[in-house]
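Now for our target.
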Amino acid sequence: MGVIKNLACLADPFAVPIEDALDQFIADAAEEQPAQILEVVAVAERSPRQRKPRQRTNSTRVEIVGLTSRGKHKSGSKKCRRLENAHYLQSLAEPEDVAEVSIYDFVHESVSAFAQLLSERENMQVWNDFISCSEEEQQRIVDEASSDVEFTDQAECDDAGKRGDHPAFSADESFHRLDNDLRKLLRKQKIPLGKLSRLEEEVSAFFKSHPGSEYHNCLCSSFERLMMHALCQYMNLISKSYDADGMRWTKVWNQRPVFVPPAVMLSSYLECRCGHRRQTL
């Protein structure tokens, strides 16, 4: 190993600042890196962030029930062909033709009474005349209309009273309204007229007070229900038996706005027929 005798020829290591030395070291290290690594780093710095492409679907396409192939790895050739045909037909239609079905597609358009009033000129003129009247005049018109309605109801009641005297409401005609089996039974069977009379009075009083209501009664025996059906047909009422709460009930209702009882009740009619039969015998 040689000994350097002339130290003046050597460079002073502390003559260069430490910052310049570090920069020189970094520059030398960068020059020693491979060119490929530098290119990859440069491309990564220049290119923006790559994102996964987003699949866009046609919003106007309607899913065909039974022809979709989503979520399945394989599907048959016939199914694929049907799916392609369905998509082809959808591509030929307009977007509004293949839109989703709404509830309004099944609801029919209707015109209210007030809208119809505004659409007709004559009715609109009457409405405008009514509005232009004073409060007293409007009240007078309303009272007159109410009196007309009451007069109509009274006329219907009078007509009902007249129908009670019509031959079609006589005892014989009312009895012939019964079914053949009921007529034969009432003619041959001994009927408890007292029980039948009480049922008639109860049903008749109910429908005189409430002609539009329903009458319900829980009768004990089937024979009493049979009498109830017979007197309902005699009074031109509708009856039906049903089960409720473990018991057999009978429901009776009137199909007409008013109730007109027959001139002769069924119990009286049967009593007269029995008396006439005894006299004949």
Confidence is low (pLDDT under 50) at residues 160-168.
